[in-house]
Every structure is written in C-alpha cells, then in structure tokens.
Amino acid sequence: MEFSAKQIAQFIQGRVEGDENATVNTFAKIEDGKPGAISFLANPKYTHYLYNTESTIVLVDESIELEKPATATLIRVKNARDCVAKLLQLYESMKPKKQGIDSLAFISPKAKVGKDVYIGAFAYIGDGAVIGDGCQIYPHATIMDNVVLGTGCIIYPNVSIYHECRLGNNVTIHSGSVIGADGFGFAPNEQTGQYDKIPQIGIVTIEDDVEIGANTCIDRSTMGSTYVRKGVKLDNLVQIAHNTDIGSNTVMSAQVGIAGSTKVGQWCMFGGQVGIAGHITIGDKVFLGAQSGVPGSLKSNQTLIGTPPMESRPYFKSQAIFRRLPELYKQINDLQKEVEELKKGK
C-alpha cells in the first residue's frame, strides 16, 4: 500500500517541503535509503546523509537546519522519532492478521476458545484453558491447563505458558519464552546431604499491554503470584524470579536478572545485564545503567550506575581513580619508604 507525502503529513501533523504527491511503500534507514522508502532524521550528526539519500521522503525535526537543498521530499515535524513510531504502528496494524485453527493444532475439548482466534499447527491448548477473542497462538506454542489469556494476545512459536497462569489483554510473548516455570526454591537437608525441593504452587499474573522478548523466563511464585504489571516491556533473555512484582510501565533491556521476592516500582528503566538482589524494594522511576548490581533497596527518582549503584558523576570519577590504582599504590609505597628513612635519620 502506498501513501503520499501529503497523506503522511496530515496523519502526523507535519509540513511538506517538496513534492506533496511523492509516494512511499516501505521504510529504510536514511543511510540505506532507496526509492519508494520513507526515512527519518532526528540526530544532526546524520544530516550529511540527507543530501544524497535515495529515500523518496524523509521526516526531519523542525530544529534541523540544512546547508543545501535535499534531494528527497521533506516532512518537517516536531519530533521525527516519535512520528516514525506512529507510522510504524499504523503500518503494522494494516497487516492482515492470521485467523482460523489449523487441523494439526491440539485443543482440549475442555478448553474455551474465543472469536477470531488463530491457532497454528502443533500448538497445544490444555484442559480448562481460556483463549480470549482475537488471540494469535503460533505453531508449537504450549498453553497448559487452566491458563487464561485475555483478548488480543499474541503468543509466538515455542512459547510455553505453564498451568494456571493469567494473562491480561494485548499481551505479546516472543518465541522461546517460558511463563510460570518453577521458582528456584530448594532447602538444604542436613540429614540426607541433599537439597529438598520447595513446591512452587503459585502462578504468574501478567497484566494488560505487556510485551515480553524472546527467551525470557518469568517464574511462578512459591505461593500467591509473581506479577508483571500493566505496560511492562521486557527485552530478550530477561530472568524474573519467583514472587517478584514488576511495577507498571517499567522497561528492562536484555539479560537483566531480578532475584526472588523483589518489588520493582513503576516507570523504572534498567539497562542491559543489570542484576538485582532478592527481597528488596526498588522505588518508582529508578534508572539503572548497564551492568549495575543492586544489593539493597533503592529510593524513587534516581539515576544510578555501578556496583553498588551510585550517581553517574561520582561513579565515573571513581572509575578514573581505579585506573590509576597501580600508580597510586607505587607512590604510597615510595612515600612510606621515605618516611621510614627520615625516621631512621633521627
């Protein structure tokens, strides 16, 4: 489907500079532009690509000033990055959705399946499962007994959702993720010299509008529920342990690990490989830089980095000192020797 510059400008409330009848049917990065594509320019560092890109249309921030005319038709907007997101959402929404139940899918006669549902080949729907209207369950996904899915959920191939777990509306889970596996609960037994498994009899509850990346694991609780609240976005390879509670609209990059019984507040942002200890509380709007290690509770409204986490300025100062430790160590030893020599001279 093609859209003209005029139509796009009307949708995103932009201003056309150039041919308002120019049409596009795909997206491309500005440095990899091609005819029929729309690109965007939000960072002034990439401005030089604008003068030779082959893209037909480019979204440009109002604040960016050009040194010479651009070859593409421009659409001036307040925030090109946000406008691209809106256009991508529109583009995705216009793709036809799969519907129908494949003859090779297994659906328990005790399960309840809503309207306009797609269930792919070799998907498994267990006893008592409830699949809401408009859900899409791709091949080889496993929905075990008594799982409840709200409306509009997308479950990609090879996702496993263990028994009793609850998903809200518009939840997306990408391939290979496991929802509701047993929490890591074991107790040492001095009599047998082994570990006794602590049964994990709780569930996982995922609220509305959550998206979970590929190969992410969210463990069921020992009792009660592990919670992932409304609007949370988890990247690939994230580990959420049992009895945790992830606050609404929190986002986590790849390889974040949250230990058990930890409560994370709303609107937090965790960079890649952040590790958080168990049985602590993280406040609202806590931003943690990549590879931060958090051994204790944190108050709200902080931007931190490191292990233990600290504000960015003292952290980078500390790193600068750390790199000089061998030199400083030698200086201290030399000074100590001089002091000892002075003492002997007395």
Describe this structure in words.
The chain has 346 residues and is of the alpha/beta class. The chain folds into three domains: 3-93, Udp-n-acetylmuramoylalanyl-d-glutamate--2,6- Diaminopimelate Ligase, Chain: A, domain 1, CATH 3.40.1390.10; 100-304, Hexapeptide repeat proteins (UDP N-Acetylglucosamine Acyltransferase, domain 1); 319-345. The chain contains four helices and 39 strands. The protein has an eleven-stranded parallel beta sheet with strand order 8-11-14-17-20-25-28-31-34-37-39, with no helix packed on it. A hairpin with a 4-residue loop joins strand 22 and strand 23 (194-197). It is flat and about 95 Å long. The mean pLDDT is 94.
Percent strand: 25-35%
Strand order of the main beta sheet, please? Answer: 8-11-14-17-20-25-28-31-34-37-39
Poorly predicted sequence stretches spanning 5 or more consecutive residues? none
In terms of structural class, how would the helical and strand content be classed?
alpha/beta
Radius of gyration: 27 Å
Name of the CATH architecture of the largest domain: 3 Solenoid
Largest sheet: 11 strands, parallel
CATH superfamily of the largest domain: Hexapeptide repeat proteins
Tally of alpha and pi helices? 4
Q: Under the CATH scheme, which class of the largest domain?
A: Mainly Beta
**Count of the separate structural domains:** 3
CATH fold descriptor of the largest domain: UDP N-Acetylglucosamine Acyltransferase, domain 1
**Got a strand count?**
39
Net shape: flat
Overall mean confidence score, pLDDT: 94
Give the N-to-C terminal Cα separation.
93 Å
